[in-house]
Write a structure and sequence with these properties.
This protein is an alpha/beta fold and 261 residues long. It has a single domain, classed as Purple Acid Phosphatase, chain A, domain 2 (4-Layer Sandwich), CATH 3.60.21. Helix content is 27%, strand content 24%. The strands form four sheets. Strands 3-4-5-6-8-7 form a six-stranded mixed β-sheet, with helices on one face. A three-stranded antiparallel β-sheet has the order 9-10-13. A two-stranded parallel sheet has the order 1-2. A hairpin with a 2-residue loop joins strand 3 and strand 4. Helix 2 packs parallel to helix 3. The two termini are 25 Å apart. 31% of the residues are buried.
Length: 261
Amino acid sequence: MDSTTPNAEATANTLASIRAQIERLQPAPAFVIASGDLANHGNVDAYRRLRHLMEGFPIPVIWALGNHDNRVNYWAGMHDQEDQGLVDHATIIQGVHIITLDTSRYGQIGGTLDDTQIAFLDSALSAHPDLPKIVVMHHPILVEGVDHNEWHGLDHAASARLAQILPNRGVQGVFSGHIHLDRFSTWHGVPIIVSMGLQNSSDPLYVGDGVRSLQGASMSICTLRESGLTVTTVPQPTTRQVEREITAAQLAAYVAALNAK
């Protein structure tokens, strides 16, 4: 919730509206997933504002970090703590085993997982074999034939390693964000659920060589059944007006500048 972002107040208002919608749901959700990019520029004040906006929220929130986040400022602003490192954790809520991975890396648009994180995930998947599991990480697994650039999500190496350890482990879904789209895929038998988020929407109909952002936001309501998972998207009111267009050359220059730091 960075106040320096041009549409910061609109995003804050969207969050307030979605919070109210969630609080009206009956039965109440077991938990809420916030899959990263909690702040646009990662300022500590942005996390403090988000914390303030979520005060009194009666439902547990699973927080993940994305490429726009700053890990040190997240720990300070959200938890009043010194830097605790990668935000990897696992918890059980109402019989669901939730495994969260921090795919963000400073100065990178795309995400990755290191050996320690892969080992953490593998161990967590082996724990509580009687419980359904979901995995939360900001960067979506790269889906062949759909994602052609590593900045779209998790890098190829990490995606390939997940292809070896996620299938047939009781994973009911992998929940991500990053690409500003509501998108659902089946990948090696594992459901991959990507949420648009609250700030804007990528235009899937754009035929240029870059990306076009539209006004747009959504949340999803998920139901985990014995037979599987249902995901219902809830689009928020929007004009779908164009916010900006970024060419492939501009993206490449931005990535090069990040890599040079």
